[in-house]
Amino acid sequence: MAVSFPKCPSSPLPPLQTRNRAWSSPLSAPVQVGDSSKWALLEATKRCHLCVSATNGGSAVAPVEPSKKVQDSGTKTTPTDHSTKVENGIRPTVFSSNEFQDLKTGPDNSGRESTVSITVVGASGDLAKKKIFPALFALYYEGFLPKHFTIFGYARSKMTDSELREMVSRTLNCRIDQRENCDAKMEEFLKRCFYHSGQYDSEAHFVELDKKLKQHEGSRISNRLYYLSIPPNIFLDVVKCTSLAASSENGWTRVIVEKPFGRDAESSAALTRGLKQYLHEDQIFRIDHYLGKELVENLSVLRFSNLVFEPLWSRQYIRNVQIIFSEDFGTEGRGGYFDSYGIIRDIMQNHLLQIVALFAMETPTSLEAEDIRNEKVKVLRSMKTLEIDDVVIGQYKSHTRGGVVYPGYTDDKTVPNDSLTPTFAAAALFINNARWDGVPFLMKAGKALHTKRAEIRVQFRHVPGNLYKKCFGTDLDRATNELVIRVQPDEAIYLKINNKIPGLGMRLDRSNLNLHYAVRYSKEIPCAYERLLLDAIEGERRLFIRSDELDAAWALFTPLLKELEEKRIAPELYPYGSRGPVGAHYLAAKYNVRWGDLGAEH
Amino acid sequence: MTILRFYQRPSSLSIAFSSRHERSFSGSSELVTLTTRRNQCWRFSPLKSSNGSPLAGASWKDDGKEMPVPKVPDIGSQLAENTVSITVVGASGDLAKKKIFPALFALYYEGYLPQHFTVFGYARSKLTDEELRHTISTTLTCRVDKRENCSDKMEQFLQRCFYHSGQYGSEVDFCELDNKLKEKEDGKLANRLFYLSIPPNIFVDVVRGASRSASSPNGWTRFIVEKPFGRDSESSSELTRCLKMYLIEEQIFRIDHYLGKELVENLSVLRFANLVFEPLWSRNYIRNVQLIFSEDFGTEGRGGYFDHYGIIRDIMQNHLLQILALFAMETPVSLDGEDIRNEKVKVLRSMRVLKLDDVVVGQYKGHTKGGKSFPAYTDDPTVPKGSLTPTFAAASLFIDNARWDGVPFLMKAGKALHRRGAEIRVQFRHVPGNLYKRKFGTDLDKATNELVIRVQPNEAIYLKINNKVPGLSMRLDSSNLNLLYSERYPREIPDAYERLLLDAIEGERRLFIRSDELDAAWAIFSPLLRELEEKKVVPELYPYGSRGPVGAHYLAAKYNVRWGDLSDSS
Questions:
Q1: Averaged over B255-277, what is the pLDDT?
Q2: Which of A196, A205, A351, A450 is flagged as catalytic?
Q3: How far B455 CA sits from the closest chain A CA (Å)?
């Protein structure tokens, strides 16, 4: 049944049929009954369901009670029963049970096709150019997009469609392993790209967009995905306008938002509240692109489909877990945004914490998104609030090496001269549950360090009563097993084991049981954005962050962040390109940990 | 503990010993000594001591002169006067030429032999020292990674090699050997090692002659014997009984060269020096264990010896069973030879006696492939036409103890198969309640983890794990966490004989088989072997170069096992 994707299909496959994910197999899974049944009530007269909410005293859509959820599946639907619900976030229009069936089984069963319109809001931005459009093209190239789709760029700048295409085309490239028909494909893809210029807070402009979208969608069932590639302060404006003026009338409307999701628990909650005035939880796709990384995806597979790992996955065998992120460059003149957030908010509280949650969660009931997210929330809520004693922060200073001068963080013109914003942080976290009690989870994230790397290191306990202890020197913990999952660069998994050095002596050595992705899997690993965009199109929420997860994540970090700012804690300075502040070692030592990435072998 | 560099030739013996220090689990207590004798053969009844050295005591008289050697402890000064004489009995044989002399030279080259040593060849043929040296020199090679001074070293080594011609049953001839040895030993503390590279029917004669007439007067005297150790329980215990008339247990070094293989040595390290393996090492997680040995050639005109023993005696009852015992044993108290052998015996004694139903035997037949025809076993002129001797066998064994109850240990050994190899495969159970089970088809057991320890060729350890195929879909793949020895350790891995010879010289008994182990091993196989012979069970024929008789699959299926080496992925 596996449909692999190395070959570009001669014609794009029907939507949803190309992927083969157990938990989202669209052919077998019944369409979920969501909780937007209220929309149907508004349907007949109102162009936009949310307009009605607004007219109802300007209040948000009343929360839907669970009891109101329509339990009907398609087969029960009668042509007159317009309260039928389809997939979450899908706004039903007047359609028959036949049409309903169509949604379930794909477009080929009836005359009515579905289409997806992807609107990149903030199309002229960097992320859009570098990541989003290329990811969309890759999906198209690989045949993962539905047969009919439309891509719109939306931004304030005046541009024509062809100017957008010109801009987009510069960053498109074909995957290295498939260059066939690349130009032709690119041409076809660009033809589906359009541009609409408008203000981010103007409903009128979004109404125009809506018209254009309708034109492209024709009579198809329209699904709309908005990618908000814009600064957080205009998130709400855009969400308001899109949902009021440019929601799909007969399919789903989803919004992808990227971090930052607030600066702390309060602002995050306010943002969520704001979004929920216009959107349902099901419509919000909070992206954390780290969750789309191949090896993070693989983490669950490793844990749950291998017998050899699960028995070891607890405080009984694991001594500590390290989650390490480092970049080998600084802000390089683009520190404006960063300076108001800092490394803890930028990397730790989201990317690294999400990895911890995935790593440490109990076995979910199934691979369904909600089951996984339930388990992740449980981990986050079991975690001890981070205290200032368990954190070390740093900031890089300038450094001259080999005649080259590397600037300090505060040398960045976009950064205030007296900025105390950490560009490095290390923290020790604890999960106070039965599985992990007492096991330190160490996180470390920094900019302008000596390597670029993201990895998870699991250090095991030493062998009790080790027969070979004479061979290990005094510190048995220095020769323990270690499982390393290197997320980037050079994806790899390896398990450090002790074995005998071949020869007549009995010298032990730590060698690696290795899996180098580049060696075993020659195909290029897809970019995280491709996976996440595709998931959003398919309604697969596993890799997106739910509101309660976000709340729990902020709850862990907010007190610390407040304290750092209130007390104006000065970061420890470290030279650009170094291994970071030595304070990180002392933090680790406090919990009897030794950073695995800074050992002698590196 | 200090770790000295290995491959640096020590300038004195004391360094030679300390460079091995990290493996010195047995002390050098046997260097505690005694009396020296000169110019006289020892003609009394067998000597025994607790450690393989001649007994300390007044009986060691030497024409009235008694030369008490100080009772030791200062190893440094003692060792300088120490020498070891290695006598290869059966020096003109194949094993001696191909394995023993080259292994001795490698040890010499690497600096593992004591500063003063002598190598003697002993056999019936008349040869001069020069002729022996010439014979030997044709098979000596330097390790591939160090060719420096190779011919110098070889020359020096050959200067220490001598030959003595004698009958295997003649005490007088051994007495002459003793005189020659003494001459070379030159008053030093003499340790003597006899390597019996001869047919089993003359083991006892040689042991008698050598132990009576050529035992070391003041150091230890040890005998290395190689399989076959009898044909069954009775003949084996008879052999042991006879050996023990002249030797004590500590003097007998029963070699199983498989135990000297690098990865077999590493097996204990893997188990006991890694936290991640030990929790899995039981019936709770391990579904079955497979011990597989295959050769890609037949007897090739040398089937005379083999026909008399068959593959079960030749490979299974010793090599594979030894690996199994090492694999399955409980954690020993220490790495001392006796502690490890105690645990191995416990495993062997917990094993169920093998029944005919749990065995499949096979014999290769002729096969023509690509215009080339490969002979059948019975085409070998040294094999009787009607021979029923198995050249292939598969067996399932069980260890009825708390750790392994119900886990099948499958063994398979054969000649003239499609490839050459020896490996241990550990198949784990399937993940209970696997979240990804829809990815695995109907048979969850086909996608379980598997640990493979490849002993030869291309030494490797790998763990098969399930992981996601990179990409946007969720396809699972079984990939390997790998350790290829040739990549990580480019240096050549020493031959098993080097390790074992060195161990024998050092008195390290961990890798040698004790009498009670041997008895326990025979007890498992003897009833089966007798039944096979009594009932004249006909082996299943399989073509030369094939994967062996299909019966092996049915045997595996009976215990819900699938051979790991014959699946598609391997």
A1: 87
A2: A351
A3: 12
